Amino acid sequence: MFRLLASLFLAAACASPAFAWGKIGHRVTAEIADHYLSQPAHDAVTGILGTESMAEAADWPDHMRSNPDNFWRSEANPWHYVTIPTGQTYAEAGAPPEGDAVSALAKFRAQVLDPATSPEDKALALRFIIHIIGDLQQPLHAGNGTDRGGNDFLCTWFDEVTNLHMVWDEKLIQYEELSYTEWTAWLLPKITPDLAADWASSGPADWADESTALMATVYPANRNLKWEYAYAHRDEVRLRLSQGGVRLAAYLNAMFDPAPEPAPVN
């Protein structure tokens, strides 16, 4: 029976794109970020998204992957992850010709800041920025190129056939039975000023390398995942969601409220 379920699941997985964090996780990072935005960044985001909150925008790029247009099914797909071969850093691996999450982030930043960009394209680019920064915190969105970021690593979650990527995208977060606002209310008070400053001091390539380092503990020896796995990785999930929120805000603050250039020394 297990082999039959596994075969059915793998067939479905091959036809389905991989997502990241899931709706709740992306909304948590965006909602945390909203609490750390500077006023200029908040005004700029509101000016682009209008009544659409960052939490609402956060999952939009995943939602649009169901759109049959080739842009969403093919061109935009690589922008949700990075591939870093074992033993390398992101700086050493670099982006492939089709791009990846780190290169797409730079592309969309430039698009948002370009005065010639249409309002519609600015909104698309900003939604991607919000989404991608969340993606980069999910350990299995920094794959090593061998199993599609854990999508091909078949396992069970409380006897439900799934894969490791889905466990990290959704199962571990849903296990807590919290809404994204409840998650945010629990996580925000635990982010000290020192932690926020430390997390905000790094960049996208660093976040990808952090995810790569976490993968050493993510892959289980026993593929029948239950309470023990949830217990072992609870702190990592909370950390990466919190870091994603702080880093998203820091990225947007730097975009829309850059620090003034230092005065020249006479």
Read across the widest sheet, the strand sequence of neighbours is 4-3-5
Q: How many β-strands, per DSSP? A: 5
Tell me what portion of residues adopts beta-strand conformation: 5-15%
- Helix/strand-derived class? mainly alpha
Reading the helices and strands in chain order gives HHHHHHEHHHEEEHHHHEH
Report the uncertain regions. 8-18, 261-266
Q: Which shape, going by the Cα principal axes? A: globular
Q: What is Rg?
A: 19 Å
Largest sheet: 3 strands, mixed
Individual helix count: 14
For the residues shown, what is the average pLDDT?
Answer: 90
Taking the alpha carbons of the first and last residues, their distance comes to 78 Å
Could you walk me through the main structural features you see in this protein, from its secondary elements to its overall organization?
The protein has 266 residues and is mainly α. Helix content is 60%, strand content 5%. It is built from 14 helices and five strands. It has helices at residues 2-15, 22-34, 39-49, 54-58, 60-63, 70-75, 90-93, 101-113, 119-135, 164-174, 180-187, 193-200, 204-218, 227-256; strands at residues 82-83, 142-143, 154-157, 160-163, 224-225. It has a three-stranded mixed sheet, sandwiched between helices. A two-stranded parallel ribbon has the order 1-2. α2 (22-34) packs across α11 (180-187) and α3 packs across α14 (227-256). Residues 8-18 and 261-266 have low confidence and may be disordered.
